[in-house]
Amino acid sequence: MSLSVHLQHDLPDIKLDLSFDAPLGVTVLFGRSGSGKTTVVNAVAGLLRPKAGRVAVDGWELFDTNQNLWLPPHRRRLGYIFQEGRLFPHLTVRQNLSYGRWFAPKHARRENPDKVIEMLGIGHLLDRRPAGLSGGEKQRVAIGRALLASPRLILADEPLAALDDARKAEILPYFERLRDEVSVPILYVTHSAAEVARLATSVVALQDGKVVRHGPASDVMADPSVAPAGVRAVGAVLKVRVQEHHADGLTELEAGGARLFLPRIPHQVGEDLRIRIPAQEVILSSKRPDGLSALNVLEGTVETIRAGDGPGAIVSVQTPAGPVLARVTRRSVTALGLEPGKRCYAVIKTVALAPQDVGGRLSPA
């Protein structure tokens, strides 16, 4: 299944004019506040009627202004996951999960409720009401309710924004399973670079109502001009495999023949992952470093150097593990004689690789 979006619309503060096609999986809308992310989601959901455009899911058209076609929201077969669960307080978890199924067409492909309940780990919650659930539990139920409505498309509008870090860490693996195990495209809005790196099959970066970058997370996250947090969000996204769990509490990863170490992670040996390495956690050396505490040293070749308006620069280094980005000063670039084609070493502190930057179950990207 695929998603095709073409929109034109005028708002007081923004003029929307964009197009993108996305494959099955998680398509992340990424950009600064006011870039048009919520407007896109509202148009897809039918909560906003744009001046012109077309949206189709696997060829099934939700609206097309050229054909004067407009399906009302209740006929669009969408599952919507909000920032807060928005569960019905007078219904039990079991009844909330069943709610969407009451409106699904009889011919619609249906998910097995037992499989969804097992996938989300909510079997022990079925007889509870929302008031007795934690924030993370409410979001898991909201995911289940959206999925059991037999949707053609799932919309997730910053679904983790209202949760603390512990609850975010609890919910992210369920979105990963949703991406990898369910054949329904997901349009996902977030400001979090870690969520993009872990979840995105493709990323649509928006700015002032237009698409400024569209592609894999590894490409988009390397561009400081499109990230909401600017250079602070820039980082490399690498494909790795769990190689070994060591007795001293470290996990060894393999990436293109190179070794990386990070604090022990709850993933099995042989499992494929994606990890994000923030550019600000990488330092560069013109020679192989000696006598350092850092365990992760990757030899590579400078690909590009992007200088900012201030004293900093983003250096992309091609390594056996993949492109690694380093945020350094322009003075350091000059002192090290860095230029495209020069050999250098990227040094990454082991403890700098945070758990939230490690994503389970690798999907195509």
UniProtKB/TrEMBL annotation:
Q: Which InterPro entries match?
A: AAA+_ATPase, ABC_transporter-like_ATP-bd, ABC_transporter-like_CS, Mo/tungstate-bd_C_term_dom, ModC_ABC_ATP-bd, Molybdenum_import_ModC, Mop_domain, P-loop_NTPase
Q: Which residues form the signal peptide?
A: none
Which Pfam family name is an example for this entry?
ABC_tran
* E.C. number: 3.6.3.25
All copies of domain Mop, residue ranges: 291-357
GO molecular function terms listed in the Swiss-Prot or TrEMBL record: ABC-type transporter activity; ATP binding; ATP hydrolysis activity; molybdate ion transmembrane transporter activity
What keywords does the record list, in alphabetical order? ATP-binding, Cell inner membrane, Cell membrane, Hydrolase, Membrane, Molybdenum, Nucleotide-binding, Translocase, Transport
Its GO CC terms are: membrane
The main enzyme category here is: hydrolase
Positions of the ABC transporter domain: 5-233
Which top-rank group of organisms is this from? Bacteria
- Which PANTHER family does the entry mention? ABC TRANSPORTER I FAMILY MEMBER 10
Name of this protein: Sulfate/thiosulfate import ATP-binding protein CysA
Native species = Ruegeria denitrificans
